[in-house]
Amino acid sequence: MSLEIAQSRAWNLARTLMTCIVVIRIADQMFGVVESSEFDGDAATIVREYDPFA
Asked: pLDDT tens digits, residue range 3-53?
């Protein structure tokens, strides 16, 4: 998924689920969205974190 779509989806999920969501880099131009409590990968792959409580 593109970065623009991933960021839009992450913000929507964070506000809907009221939980922290991170956008991670999977490959050069591929990004993923995952709940931050479920992410156990390399912290260097995190592009952005969305916190609905901030």
From this structure: 999 999 999 999 999 999 999 999 888 999 999 999 999 999 999 999 999
Cα dihedral value 35, 38, 17, 28, nearest 10: 20
Q: Are 20 and 34 spatial neighbours (Cβ–Cβ below 8 Å)?
A: no
SS3 of 46, please? strand
pLDDT of 54 higher than 90: no
What is the model's pTM? Answer: 0.88
Q: What is the rounded CA–CA span in Å between residue 52 and residue 44?
A: 22
φ, ψ of residue 32 in degrees (nearest 5): -130, 165
CB 46 within 8 A of CB 24: yes
Q: How many residues does the chain have?
A: 54
